[in-house]
Amino acid sequence: MTLASDSPHIGLPSKPGFRTRLMRLIARPGFQRWASAFPLTRRTAAKDGAELFDLVQGFVKSQVLFALVELRVMHRLMDGPLSAEMLAQTCGMRSDRMERLMMAASAMKLTKRDRTGRYRLARLGAAMVGVPGLDDMIRHHSAFYRDLNDPVALLRDEVDTELSAFWPYVFGAAHATDMDTANRYSDLMARSQQIVAADTLSVADLKQTRHLLDVGGGYGVFAESAALKHPNLQATVFDLPAVETQAVALMQKSKAQDRLRFVPGSFRDDALPEKADTISLIRVLYDHEDQTVEALLSKVFDSLPERGSLLISEPMSGGAKPEIAGDVYFSFYCLAMNTGTVRSAARIAEMCTSAGFYSVKKYPVRRPFVTTTLMAKKSS
To answer: CB–CB of 293/285 below 8 Å?
Structure first.
């Protein structure tokens, strides 16, 4: 077997262009030493060095964050500053180890160390406490870390990943009959869905919608958010039977309960509920392969009336301009799930057009690490 590093120049042109020659020059250790000392280049060299080191230490920062969440450090600091000794007592560890953790938290701008040696929340740490579902997602990363333990094996499809077992619903209703597993997934999604719903509804125009069908809507977080924002809107959630009991229980507690309903089913196997003039797919497409997405988009198109709308909101790739959230985090998360892929807005628009939709609008992106939102129309 030929290792990737054995033939680094396969496919390269015999006469490299200017940019290739420039990159080869920058890659020389001697050039890096010179650039670090020369007045006109040392600032750029230092910036590059800092960014490289941040890439190298990234996994350590993730594990420090995991420890802070597991120990609920940010939550403990909500009542005011605490010393490392006091935190150590409540967290069950030596004070010198807690001091080490808190110094790392301060370096990561999550906490601040005052003159007395006590630690208090910094703005970033306080914001972290306020993001719905973030703690749960970070805890859930323990499985993701293990799946990424050997990234080359993962890329070569030589790993049976934990995440693929955690998300069996993506393979169809037959794989999601266990209620505990389905609810564990839905719980995690529901806690983080609030922020996705807020960003989506801040840009998407549903003023003319009378009946929203949220396909794969879980416990109904997005449907409820839409109904609360638009008092004349009826909303139906369509999802697997395994989540029906919990979803209905939560809907019955909603201020919009009389305008919410749950219909059990699988978009793979069952017809979509009728009478909706807008159908939403919130964090659905990137869970599935192209063939499944194409079939779903065709089913949605056939279900909508003339002038009906399709709302799509999920993390997306940067396409021709890769971006850090979609093309790193969510891309490799899908890889570990063993299904689905993060697509660019242009690619999703292309798939919608192939399904028959007349036009696709991309809304301004508030936070690409949360979601990107598209609206497709069935006709003009």
So the answer is: yes
